[in-house]
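A.,

Following up on our hallway conversation. Structure tokens first:
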């Protein structure tokens, strides 16, 4: 338990409207975050207990709550059996209501995970749908007859491996599942299903939700003719993601992102806009070319307010590649819109595992100084790494399928202190949702709070600086210089001018001619803020700096 939580490092400035433009979002993977009831599983009560940490210590202003609905938990809650209730494992509706009240009292918005593409095969809707060809809910899911010779309707591959089509003896047809076979896909072309799913949004909005993160928003509409996907030219597995190798053997052009999708998102947006308080839709969409990503804002900016820019996650860690990706994002961004950015999430290897801890500090500076709403994955602020999970302890059924890849290593419990299990739970070790991190004795909240040079205190400083800086929070973004080893860019508003320079290597680097200014923050432990004259800027190995530009060249004075 974390005691004596200190105040934020810097007094926060007012946040520009709408609220989500100036927010910092924190992804909470619920079963692994904090156990409030002592049964070994993180829950809503544990999240409530952690709100002071999120708001007072870290400076978070929005929490995305992972799935908490009734579920068999084969996909850690993404296999839903009731969209309008709470899994007893996590609490009840009263606990959710308390979460909203207590979060709002601390200035934290609550983002609910909305899972519109699929349900559990135990959902009452699917039980009815599979019962008869003529059941009124038959068309709520995607059914088709097989081809001659026992072949499936098409060649589409599942993210869990194998065909997306599962035969069902009850009616002799096959149902479509883009993920596990226990997760049948909903048919958003059916008006009754669409109406029922929009009612789900109303249910949580009426309970005070500030918005939704829409799971696999790009997958809701498939090709109505069920045409085959073409093969992938190289068939290579995506090194940035955790998916079954089968999935990357084809180009997924017909099993997702059909143009009709944008009409569905427009309906969702219209519904959300009818509620007060700038409710927001955050879309999980696949990493795609920037012009395709930009379409999710809607032709009249009536789509998603915040589609995730996941192509940034899938960018090589060098200055040229990052500069190209950021310039592409900026060039594709429709006028008047705003991106949401992430460098990690629950489906990816952890940041510190991908880059190493020294560069994970540089990545934190990148994420929290870019133009857009940053989204942090729980534990990244501690530099948590992926932890091996024995097969017999795995919870992710994707990893238990033949050839499957488990995402459990990036979802292990949040360590709060040096007590048993990192203070995540008082339960016996065998009852923990997943095994505690082997690093919890030194990578935990209490210990890092007490260490001025820790990763946690770097995140705190970056978030506080962002919230107090108009340039970082809402200013323009301009690329300055980039090469294989370094990246530099400007953030600028009317009265605030910052330059961010990042060394992406383990050797000293020099960034070309710079204006005079003050280094207000460095990723290096122990480096104090300092003034420097105009001229080349030397960056130590693994160093990133934020410079407050005071005077200098003609384009740099403020």
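Then the amino acids I'd put at each of the 558 positions:
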């Amino acid at each position: 338990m974390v005691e004596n939580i200190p105040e934020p490092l810097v007094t926060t400035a007012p946040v520009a409207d709408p609220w989500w433009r100036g927010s910092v979002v924190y992804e909470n993977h619920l079963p692994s975050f904090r156990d409030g009831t002592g049964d070994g599983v993180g829950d809503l009560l544990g999240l409530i207990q952690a709100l002071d940490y999120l708001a007072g210590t870290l400076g978070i202003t929005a929490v995305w709550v992972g799935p908490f609905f009734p579920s068999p938990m084969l996909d850690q809650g993404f296999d839903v059996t009731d969209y309008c209730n709470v899994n007893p494992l996590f609490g009840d509706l009263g606990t959710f209501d308390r979460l909203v009240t207590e979060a709002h009292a601390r200035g934290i918005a609550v983002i609910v995970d909305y899972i519109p593409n699929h349900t559990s095969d135990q959902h009452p809707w699917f039980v009815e749908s599979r019962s008869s060809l003529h059941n009124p809910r038959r068309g709520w899911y995607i059914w088709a007859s097989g081809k001659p010779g026992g072949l499936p309707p098409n060649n589409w591959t599942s993210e869990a491996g194998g065909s997306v089509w599962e035969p069902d003896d009850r009616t002799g047809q096959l149902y479509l599942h883009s993920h596990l076979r226990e997760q049948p896909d909903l048919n958003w072309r059916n008006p009754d299903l669409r109406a029922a799913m929009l009612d789900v949004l109303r249910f949580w909005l009426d309970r005070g939700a500030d918005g939704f993160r829409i799971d696999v928003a790009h997958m809701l509409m498939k090709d109505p003719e069920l045409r085959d996907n073409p093969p992938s030219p190289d068939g290579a597995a995506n090194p940035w993601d955790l998916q079954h190798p089968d999935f990357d053997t084809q180009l997924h052009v017909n099993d997702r992102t059909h143009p009709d999708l944008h009409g569905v998102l427009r309906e969702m947006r219209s519904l959300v806009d009818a509620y007060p308080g700038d409710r927001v839709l955050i879309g999980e969409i696949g990493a795609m070319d920037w012009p395709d990503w930009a379409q999710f804002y809607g032709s009249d900016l009536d789509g998603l307010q915040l589609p995730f820019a996941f192509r940034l996650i899938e960018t090589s860690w060098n200055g040229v590649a990052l500069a190209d990706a950021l310039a592409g994002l900026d060039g594709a961004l429709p006028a008047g819109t705003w991106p949401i950015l992430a460098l990690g999430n629950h489906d990816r290897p952890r940041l510190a595992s991908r880059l190493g801890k020294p560069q994970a500090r540089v990545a934190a500076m990148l994420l929290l100084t870019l133009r857009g709403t940053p989204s942090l994955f729980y534990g990244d602020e501690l530099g948590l790494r992926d932890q091996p999970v024995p097969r017999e302890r795995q919870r992710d059924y994707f990893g238990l399928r033949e050839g499957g890849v488990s995402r459990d290593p990036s979802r292990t419990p949040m360590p709060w202190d040096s007590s048993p299990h990192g203070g995540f739970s008082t339960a016996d070790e065998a009852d923990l949702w997943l095994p505690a991190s082997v690093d919890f004795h030194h990578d935990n909240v209490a210990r890092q709070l007490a260490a001025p040079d820790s990763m946690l205190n770097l995140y705190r400083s970056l978030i506080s600086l962002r919230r107090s800086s108009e340039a970082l929070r809402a200013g323009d973004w301009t690329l300055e210089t980039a090469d294989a080893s370094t990246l530099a860019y400007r953030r600028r508003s009317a009265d605030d001018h910052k330059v961010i320079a990042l060394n992406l290597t383990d050797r000293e680097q020099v960034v070309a001619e710079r204006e005079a200014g003050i280094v207000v923050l460095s990723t290096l432990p122990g480096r104090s803020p300092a003034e420097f004259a105009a001229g080349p800027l030397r960056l130590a190995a693994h160093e990133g700096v934020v410079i407050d530009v005071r005077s200098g060249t003609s384009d740099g004075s403020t």
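The longest strand covers residues 486-493. Curious whether your intuition agrees with the design.

B.
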